[in-house]
Each structure stands twice: as structure tokens, then as C-alpha cells.
Amino acid sequence: MRNLGRYLLAVLAGVLRQPDSMQVQLFRRGLTCVRALLDFTLMAQYRSHTPETISYMAEYATQFHVTKYIFLEFRISKRMQEKPDELRKELRCQKAQMRERVPPAQWRRICDDDR
Fold first, then answer.
1. What is the spatial distance between Cα 61 and Cα 55, in angstroms, rounded to a whole number?
2. Which of 10, 52, 17, 59 is CA-nearest to residue 37?
3. How far apart are alpha carbons 74 and 2 in whole angstroms?
4. Dist CA 25 CA 19 (whole Å)
5. What is the pTM of this model?
6. Where are the domains of the chain?
7. In this structure, are residues 14 and 41 in contact, taking their beta carbons and an 8 Å threshold?
8. Tens-digit pLDDT profile for the chain (115 aa)?
């Protein structure tokens, strides 16, 4: 988990490095939120804590809670989650119909291409 946290922030920073002018503030807040969460989790793994490390952790937790709303805007609703499921079912039906009309050797090639 510790290693994942180290790479996650670097990957996000790399992916979000060239935002549009309208996205600059959103990306900065998102990175700030992720950085605060990762810093908190890394400090929480210390074997012992001093009042200074506890104050750092409280600061990181506060910073996370102040900036976490940035991700709520992009949250997927239940209605939006149903749409991919419907499309997946439709695709399976189409594939089943196609399988009935295609010879087995050609079907294996189609499945290999899909993979």
C-alpha cells in the first residue's frame, strides 16, 4: 500500500500536467486532495507518534476533507451505472446471434480478435 501511494501521486501529476485553462484549478485541488490523503496514510504508518506528527496528521486530514468535494462532482450515479450494464447485455445478445450464423473456425478468429 505504501508503494502504491508513492506512485499514485506521481502518475496523477504526470497525467494532469497539461490541463486546459478551465481545468487548472480543478486539477490542482484534485492533486492537493490526493496528496493530503497519501501524506496522512504514510504518517499513520509510523510506529510511534509525537505531538508534532499528530498535528501533521490532523493538518493532512483537514486538508483532505476540505478538498474531497472536488471528486463528488464526477461521481457516477446509479442511473449512469445501469447504462453500461444495459449495453453489455445488448452486446452479448448480438454476439450470441452472430455465433449462430458464423462457422466455428471463423468464430474462434473473431473471439481471438476481440481479446
1. 10
2. 59
3. 26
4. 9
5. 0.57
6. 2-72, 78-114
7. no
8. 667 776 777 777 777 677 777 777 888 888 888 889 888 988 888 899 999 999 999 999 999 999 988 887 767 777 777 777 888 888 888 888 877 888 888 888 887 887 7
